[in-house]
Specification:
The complex is a heterodimer of chains A (241) and B (252). By secondary structure, chain A is mostly beta strands. In chain A, 10% of the residues lie in helices and 36% in strands. In chain A, strand 6 and strand 7 (167-171) form a beta hairpin. Chain A is elongated and about 70 Å long. With 252 residues, chain B is mainly beta. Chain B has one domain. Chain B has helices at 3-13, 98-101, 106-110, 118-126, 146-149, and strands spanning 21-33, 41-44, 52-53, 56-60, 78-90, 130-135, 138-144, 156-160, 192-200, 206-211, 224-227, 231-233, 237-250. Chain B has a four-stranded antiparallel sheet. A four-stranded antiparallel sheet of chain B has the order 2-10-6-7, with no helix packed on it. Chain B has a two-stranded antiparallel sheet with strand order 3-4. Classes of the chains: A mainly beta (241), B mainly beta (252). Chains A and B meet through helix 2, strand 5, strand 7, strand 8 and strand 9 of A and strand 1, strand 5, helix 3 and strand 8 of B.
Chain lengths: 241, 252
Amino acid sequence: MSTQALDYVSSLQNRFGTIDYSQWQGVRQEFYSYVKYPTAGSNTITFFADTLGQNNVTRFQTNMPKANSFGQTYFLIKSIHTGIRIANAALNGTGTGVTTYSTLDIDNIASDYLNGFLEAGYLDFSIGSRPFLQIPKPFLYLSPLASEPEVYGRGFSLMTTAANNQQVVQTDAPLVTQASGRSRAFIIEPSILVEPEQAFSIAINFPTGSVPITSTNVVNDSTNPLYVGVTLDGILLRPLQ
Amino acid sequence: MDNNLISSLVARFGSAVWDQYQVVRWMYYDYVRVPTGGTSQLQFFRVPAGALDPNATSVQKTIEQTNVPKATSFGQNYFALSAIRTHVNLLPKNRQVAAIAANSRAVSRGYSGIAAGVMQTAYNFLNQGTLEIGFGDKQYLTLERPFVNVPPGAGVEIGNISGNFPAADVATGPNKYTTFWTQQSTDPRNIFVVSPTLVIEPEQTINVAINFYGANSPSFTGTFIVDDTPTYATPGFEVGMIFDGYLIRPRQ
């Protein structure tokens, strides 16, 4: 449609349209979608395909009005980011003892951050069937805007004596998080305007092969699942009340 | 022939309708395997997804590794290059050789538990190389030590990473449990900004390589400690080249 055609449509809307766009407002909004990352891994993790109230989905997982669409509103996407959350991160691991960790990869979630699914995958964001973003290793490049908790006082936790009388320093378990904070926002410039009822899809794909969870003594699909999420930050355009 | 004349000809007789083009933020990326024994050159954007990695011909690329539409070119789109990132990435544990994938202490010990271990070698690797970027036959950028001068500006934050003794192994003494981790800068302010922006035209041939002059890149062979026997394995790394900028393409 040419610029002239847009002018023509605009003129028609003003005269005969069913919507009064002068009565619309713009508000900052975030739409998010969190889903379980299965311990066995998956070739595709799909986001924004669930909607509130269906399949026991609550606002813990998403605040989308409907699946794969922003419903009857416009949404101007200005940035995109990922997140990872788990109910119990088990910072000291799950291994033997209370003052030390076992050094087994399965006992600390740092194994996954340093050498797991964060180092793989690509994010595809398509509107209709057309890609608008393809981002490699999205859990690295699309940092969370929310700042991760800061943890201090870790390091030496215990000294013990080895069998040969050497003093051995015992330390706390590794602590690794996504690099985070608003200064790391992945800005989509120019912004992307998703129109009402426009179908979009966001998925993180692993076509080279799924990457299972390493810290299987921490992450458990039923008792302590790991959630991964994608958040779209922008401006919601909707009718005034 | 000046730009005004070309513009006039395009508007009157051209096969493309330029006011129907859109601009979207875009990344073109290409991750290639690092030959484990060292190499004199890593080439990027040489092949699209589906082809074999020229640096490791047993590895077929997918869109996880690259999203270029064709070899050495961005195809029928314009691309305005505004920033460059490189990324040295340790392959996920389950994509390493079996001796590492099945190792129970890969992260807490295997990658750095010996003097010339994986992370020590990676540190040396990060301080080497020369990035050379050309279009057609013309050289545009030459940057020394690209992994430190052109970092990814993204990654993980490490609050604590250090070795420990499982109680059962204390008797073996403090010999193989030192753990540290090496990575590039994750600060997004450190990415290499291309200003003025460089517009890469359709079908323009792209030549991007990191060359290791004087001596090959460090060898990662046998830098992973598998057990106390001792047994060693060789870890796999990939290096990514990310062109960050704006894709200019026809509207739907």
